[in-house]
Design brief:
By secondary structure, the protein is of the alpha+beta class. The protein is built from two helices and four strands; from the N terminus they run βαββαβ. A four-stranded antiparallel β-sheet has the order 2-3-1-4, with helices on one face. The N and C termini lie close together (12 Å). The mean pLDDT is 95.
Length: 93
């Protein structure tokens, strides 16, 4: 198990319930693969440096997790196809 930081930006128009549903979905992907969530920090709505998909703002979410290195590619694919996620970054710490 390695330590990872996962940061993703969610569409700004989603309400609090939809945002928590997306965070729970990402957390369940990690825990179902045998990983563990160390910290979840919702940074809230922030202005983007440049427009992404015609959006100037986004809701930022930060996760610290432990997961197998092989699961990184699957998490990358899952986040890519999760439509409300504008951008994401998975970094080994």
């Amino acid at each position: 198990m390695r330590n990872y930081e996962v940061i993703f930006i969610v569409h700004p128009d989603l309400d609090e319930n939809a945002l928590s549903g997306i965070v729970d979905r990402v957390k369940s992907w990690i825990t179902d693969a045998g990983g563990a969530i160390d910290k979840v920090d919702i940074w809230g709505r922030r202005r983007l440096a440049y427009a992404i998909r015609k959006q100037r703002e986004g809701q930022y979410v930060f996760l610290q997790a432990q997961m197998a290195p092989a699961f990184g590619a699957e998490l990358d694919r899952n986040l890519r196809f999760l439509e409300p996620v504008i951008r994401y970054s998975i970094t080994a710490v």
